[in-house]
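Posting here for the record, re: adenosine-5'-diphosphate.
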Amino acid sequence: RHALEKKRRQELHNTLMELRGNIRVHGRIRPLMEFDVENEDITSLGKPGSRSEVVVHYVDDENICVRTNKHNKVFEYERVYNSTEKQEAIFDEVQPMLTSLLDGYNVSIMAYGQTGSGKTHTMLGSHRNDDYNPSHDPHPDEGVIPRATRELFRLIEEKPVGTHSLEVSVVEVYNNDIKDLLSRDPNAKHDVVTGGDGQLSIPTVTSKPVDNVDSVMTLVQLGLKTRKESATLVHEHSSRSHLIVTLTVTTKAPSFFAKSFAAEPEGNTSISKKGVVGNLQTTNQQPVVRTKLQLVDLAGSECVGMSGVKGAALREASNINKSLSALADVLGALAEHRTHVPYRNSRLTHFLQDSIGGDAKLLILLCVSPAQRYITESLQCLGFGQRARQVQRGPTKRRLPSSAEKVAPENTQSRPNSATR
Ligand code: ADP
Ligand code: MG
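Prediction output follows.
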């Protein structure tokens, strides 16, 4: 009965995805923190007109209201979390995406917001600290990355032994350069390349096989340490670069799928042409499908005032602005069904290309502070999310039938992919 219930939930999720397109946007308001009231006169704390006044309000599960001095502005998303909502609540919405991942879709989950808005808290939670002890897992405060990883391994355990294997890579995109945080030489240059099968990858980046959540999180923490140590110039380096954890799932295709594929006249050619999301290859005569889960803690989205910023800081600021506006441009192009989607304008969007476009499923978690002092940044962030929500694409069909649901491969229809894929 439990399985039936779960299947129904998954079906509902898929239907919602089809109705709303593959991009979902959630908003999370963090609680008022001590640093929000810094340098504030004690007599005016939280009072109307003060910088610590709470102006970003949770209205209901789908609406956020921002009180500006002129009017109230309401933003609607698929889901809104109030400041007391637990990490667990966010994960509830992520869970069905992992089932999709094993069904052959690429998935990405990214946290967007200004520095201090709760992105790292949302993505990593308790695992952000160097001294975090994994023996306390699962920690109630752990974020999306450990939770998603744990659930992924749980789902894989339900599958026949040996059909799924996982690899992890941890990179940062800093000043439009990709840095391999699992390498001894994190400053070496890397580039995104398109393989013969049309799938994007960074072949020079370290990718480690993993078989449990602890080994993934140990690698993520190693990456965070490398990131901290390799940061030369800048204080608060973490908010100046994008962190991307990529879990690649290799699935040995079910035999019926393999048979139908072998019957294809073109054989083992471009996946995107066929509309199959995963990366289908043959190793030792057995076809495998590769799908990716990309978990992203984006750089701070504060509109950096260019005046007074010089040298390295200016270079960083303009690179962050460029990559985040490249992301906005990609989402905009998808929303308008433009034939050219400008993925190549930044390494960030280039690397994320096949987990943003086409059939991939993207969840954007907007993180905002409730305080008046950040209202400009919060409005920018909520506006970005609102525009991203307009991304609507045609209905999608599953490409790799789940074991619970053996759809004959010839019944699945392909949908045209965006021209650049
Ligand atoms: P960012 O990564 O966006 O710069 P952080 O995740 O570091 O922001 O959050 C800033 C501070 O606020 C941290 O101390 C974090 O623990 C705290 N914080 C953020 N969101 C929440 C939340 N939902 N509940 C409790 N504390 C939070
Ligand atoms: Mg952070």
